[in-house]
Amino acid sequence: MIALRQVGFAYAPGAPPVLDSIDLAIGAGELVCAIGPNGAGKTTLLRLIGGLVAPTRGEIRVLGCDPAREPRRRMARRLSYTPQSYRLAFPYRVSEVVLMGRYAHQGASPFGLERDADLAAAAEAMERCDVLEQAGRRFDELSGGEQRRVLLAQAFCQGAELLLLDEPTASLDPAHALALFAALAAERDRRGATALIVTHDLNLAARTADRVVLLGGGRIAADGPPVDVLRSPATAEAFAVPMHVGTLPGSGAPFAVPG
């Protein structure tokens, strides 16, 4: 599904690399969280995998192809990318923003108009992300948390087999943050979708991810089961703070807190 071999990236010739010697493999159906301190290269990693930038060196294969060279519309049928921030030039309604996820699938529709299947996919995605009641509202009038849920609905509406999400729980209240990760797990369980999520929410990563990948100093410092990675000395070193990992009484769900 995703394979990076000795990948490096710098934003300008001669500049210090943001990422260096990255080897990473993610299989179909995995839910993987990428964690690390600010500036560790997590967003750059997503952009490389999504084909938005090309590596300075090394090789990337996503869904069997080079994502930086593959036609964007073809990639969009199989891969969705949700950035940290999202700005629209026009006052689109929520339903219209969600339907943008169907763009890559509308080639068979006259003039690119939505088909019944597109409208049904949008309605289902909005319901799953708890934004169906906001379908007629302007996107730019929503709170930050509501906008994040609309963007997740857009990704689900796209129906891609690979989801790349950059800080999807930013601005979300705890209930909706839990619901978001539950929805991603449901996508994995229901149709075998793969997800790579950049997050600073270590508790949700510990509770939900199949694997955690720790970035530190532009390299992969640890990669493995969530609790093992969070307990590792590499995590304490990367965040410059000791990490306490335990389990909640009753549920036994893992948690991680600094200190």
Could you characterize what this model shows?
- Strand 8 and strand 9 form a beta hairpin.
- The mean pLDDT is 90.
- The protein is 33% helix and 24% strand.
- It folds into two domains: 177 residues, Rossmann fold; 75 residues, no CATH class.
- The longest helix is centred in the C-terminal third of the chain and has 18 residues.
- The strands form three sheets. Strands 5-6-7-3-8-9 form a six-stranded mixed beta sheet, sandwiched between helices. A three-stranded antiparallel beta sheet has the order 2-1-4, covered by helices on one side.
- By secondary structure, the chain is an alpha/beta fold.
- The protein is globular, with a radius of gyration of 19 Å.
- 41% of the residues are buried.
| Number of E-type strands | 11
Task: Give the CA-CA distance, first to last residue.
Answer: 36 Å
- The average pLDDT is 90
Q: Tell me the CATH topology of the largest domain.
A: Rossmann fold
* CATH class call of the largest domain: Alpha Beta
Tell me the strand percentage band: 15-25%
Shape: globular
State the major sheet.
6 strands, mixed
- Percent helix, as a range, is 25-40%
Uncertain regions: pLDDT < 50 for 5+ in a row? none
CATH superfamily of the largest domain: P-loop containing nucleotide triphosphate hydrolases
For the CA atoms, what is the radius of gyration? 19 Å
SSE series: EEEHEHEHHHEHEHEEHHEE
CATH architecture of the largest domain: 3-Layer(aba) Sandwich
Write out the strand line-up for the largest beta sheet, numbering strands in chain order. 5-6-7-3-8-9
